[in-house]
Design goal:
By secondary structure, this protein is an alpha+beta fold. The protein has 2 domains: 186 residues, no CATH class; 135 residues, no CATH class. The protein has 11 helices and 11 strands. The strands form 2 sheets. Strands 1, 2, 3, 4, 5, 6, 7, 10 and 11 form a 9-stranded mixed β-sheet that branches. α7 packs parallel to α10. The radius of gyration is 33 Å and the shape is elongated. The relative contact order is 0.11.
Length: 328
């Protein structure tokens, strides 16, 4: 616990720190049954760092740590083993020889058992029971040579440099432990790098799908405009006969191609907005639509119309006026 206090004092900007200790148990009983759940002593900041959600009640507070309170929070599986499916708030369980009052129940967490990545263990909290770390240290038996804590998790501030913070932590803990190498520090950089690589692959795949869609759409616009040129051959001949220049014909068909693509872009933006709101409503995912993304959509639509409208426009402007007037 002295390490935790030192980290809270030295690290700037102030990080979020959680200490944990696995409590040795020989019995966990409720009023009617018993459980084989794991008991962990943790800090009150633990659910914020581990992103745990509460189904009932609340997690214990910092004041409970200060008072060595005999309170606990149950994982959803631990709760079902001890009490079934009823309400459990303010009911009691007995861990070894100590009675603990239930103040909260965690929501179901879909995490595989014994999952580990780059030395960072991802535990499944569903069958866990959480008690204040100070209660675990001071009220449960420990071996003389046993470490007071099993793990300290430090969540650094977003603006802090992870390598600098890791170096500071290493130097501080080394001094606190009198330069005895009885600890290990894991910096999950590779976990972050893999997340970034996955995001990059996702962006590439989505970009490829969007590019194929734009290519198909552009070819569709070009075919429509070529068909329009064929159907309006007489009109082109008449315009040329009364003085229209080749540039005028080109600009006419290019403008029509851009108008078609902008209309498609407008429909696409409307559908995209509606679908994103539907996804947010039914899945609970947060979706963000910015003005820049809408502007980019219309810009891309205009470019597609311009690029794929050039060939039909050139073909129309190069038609011979006399042949056009004869065309049936």
């Amino acid at each position: 616990m002295r390490d935790v206090e030192a980290l809270q004092t030295i690290l700037k900007p102030k990080p979020l720190i959680s200490a944990s200790r696995l409590v040795k148990t020989y019995q966990i009983n409720s009023e009617k049954t018993r459980s084989d759940s794991r008991v962990l002593g943790v800090s009150s900041t633990y659910p914020r760092i581990q992103n745990l959600k509460l189904l009932q009640g609340s997690f214990f507070l910092a004041s409970d740590e200060e008072d060595n309170a005999q309170v606990c929070v149950l994982g959803i599986v631990a709760k079902q083993k001890l009490f079934g499916f009823g309400d459990v708030l303010n009911r009691q369980i007995k861990i070894n020889d100590i009675w603990m009052t239930v103040v909260g129940v965690l929501a179901d967490a879909a995490v595989a058992d014994k999952q580990e990545f780059e030395g960072v263990k991802v535990q499944n909290p569903n069958n866990d029971i959480y008690i204040p770390i100070t209660t675990a240290v001071r009220k449960f038996d420990t071996e003389t040579v046993e470490n007071e804590l099993n793990e300290i998790v430090v969540q650094i501030a977003p603006e802090a440099n992870i390598n600098e913070q890791a170096s500071t932590i290493n130097n501080l803990i080394s001094v606190m432990h009198r330069y005895v190498d009885d600890y290990s520090i894991v910096v999950p950089e590779k976990l972050l790098a893999q997340s970034q690589r996955t995001q990059g692959i996702f962006n590439i795949v989505m970009g490829a799908i969007a590019s194929i869609s734009l290519l198909v759409g552009g070819i569709g616009i070009m075919n429509i405009m070529l068909a329009s040129v064929l159907e309006r051959t007489n009109e082109i001949g008449l315009r040329r006969a009364i003085g229209a220049k080749k540039l005028d014909i080109r600009m006419q068909f290019m403008a029509e191609a851009i108008a078609i693509s902008l209309a498609g872009g407008l429909i696409g933006v409307g559908l995209g907005y509606g679908i994103s709101k539907a996804v947010a409503m039914f899945s609970g995912w947060r979706t963000i639509i910015t003005g820049a993304s809408i502007g980019l959509s219309f810009g891309v639509s205009s470019i597609i119309g311009l690029v794929f409208g050039i060939y039909p426009a050139v073909q129309a402007s190069n038609l011979d006026p006399i042949e056009c007037l004869r065309y049936e």
